[in-house]
Structure formats: structure tokens, C-alpha cells
């Protein structure tokens, strides 16, 4: 009994050192990955949210396309106190893989523009573009900044299970510091800063003796950090991965996997 207790006491500091501390989650590389991703990606809850947003009418001089450094004219309610607007185009429409419920719409970022003058049409100066601006592209105000210190200390008791449903940058295999879209959001209890465990289903193999298909046990494959929540969707960053992750992989809240 005394020997077992001694081993336990000697092992405890080592075991505690192996558990990631919240402040270790957000090193400089992690912070840069989150901020860079949010600069170029966002979700709106419904297509109507984009349809009702102010939109580009034409570029300066009546041209139909706008490029970096040009001025563009927009119609719709824009706030002069908002110095800069993102330019977006409707992207993927997300539905729940099980229920087919509409969860949200990815707003593809085209660039940014600075408010210049309000008249019958609002004039904006294009600051940055990732592709040519078209008539009908939408203007949205800036998202709230991610509070990194809040991410480091977030904790939730909610028990949540869901799936990775998209990789916004378009690759098929997911690795460390890649961002993914999840089919759960604020209404499900997810909070920014929450840790999630990715569970991959075991492969199906053929039993060489019986000839029957046999599914191998599921296994933990990585850890996600939720850094932006929407009503029904969330963005998360891959903090660790023992295997390549993919769309349709299941996740569960960290305490479920302990």
C-alpha cells in the first residue's frame, strides 16, 4: 500500500505536466492563425442576412468591376461611423447532415473598402481585394474581435457531440492550425475557448477467419479549440492531431473523452 502511494505521489507531477494548460493553448502561431482566419472568413445565419445587406452598384466611372485602389459606389444603409466594411459574396450553404436543417451560410470574402462619402449612393475606397469586385457583392461591418484572454480561460459544462462539416480553405485533409466548421453553435451550448476531442470511426476490415466485415474501435484523433461561435455553427482550430482529420469526423466535448 505504501509503495503504491509513493509511486502515485512521484507520478502525479509528471501526469499534471502532460495535461495542456489553458495558457499554453494560445502561443503566437495559434493566435496568428485565428486572427488571419477571421480576417477572411465569416458566417451569416440566413441567406436573407446577405440579401438585405448594402451592395455594390458599380465601380468608379460606371465600370462593372472594381479592383484594388479604386472607388466603388454602393446602395443601402451604411454607417459613416463605421470606417471600414468587408466585401462579401454568398458561398456555401450549410445544412445539418442528420436533420437537413439550414444552419447558416458562408460569406466568401472579396476584400475591404473604406467609407468615403454618403450621397444617393455611398462611395467607398477599395483597400484590399482577393478577387475582382462585382455588382451585387455585399458590404458587412466588422466582426467583434476575438478576446484571446477569454479563450484561454473559457470553461463550459455543456455536453455536446457533433461533426466537422467543412474546411473553409478547401483542402480535403485537416492538420494542426487548420480551421474547420462545426455543425453546432451557441444554441447548443458551445462557447468560444471550449476544447473538443475529435473521434474517428474505426476502419471496416475483413475477418480473415470468418470472412465477415468487422469494424475496428473508434479512436481519439485530435483536439479542437472553438474560437468563434454563431447561432447554429462554429469555427474551431486544430490544436493537435494524431491522424489526418476530415469532414464528417465526429467531435465531442473534452470532458466526455476523459
Explain what you see.
- By secondary structure, the protein is an alpha+beta fold.
- The chain has 2 domains: 98 residues; 104 residues, Thrombin, subunit H (Beta Barrel), CATH 2.40.10.410.
- It contains 4 helices and 15 strands.
- Strands 1, 2, 3, 4, 5, 6 and 7 form a 7-stranded antiparallel sheet that branches.
- Strand 11 and strand 12 form a beta hairpin.
- The chain is elongated and about 75 Å long.
- 28% of the residues are buried.
Given as residue ranges, the uncertain stretches (5+ residues, pLDDT < 50) are: 1-24
Strand content: 35-45%
Give helix and strand order, one letter per element, not per position: HHEHEEEEEEHEEEEEEEE
CATH class of the largest domain: Mainly Beta
CATH homologous superfamily of the largest domain - what is it? Answer: FlgT, C-terminal domain
- The count of helical stretches stands at 4
Number of domains: 2
Which architecture of the largest domain would the CATH scheme give at its second level?
A: Beta Barrel
Shape: elongated
Short description:
This protein has four helices and 15 strands. By secondary structure, it is of the alpha+beta class. The protein folds into two domains: 43-140; 154-257, Thrombin, subunit H (Beta Barrel), CATH 2.40.10.
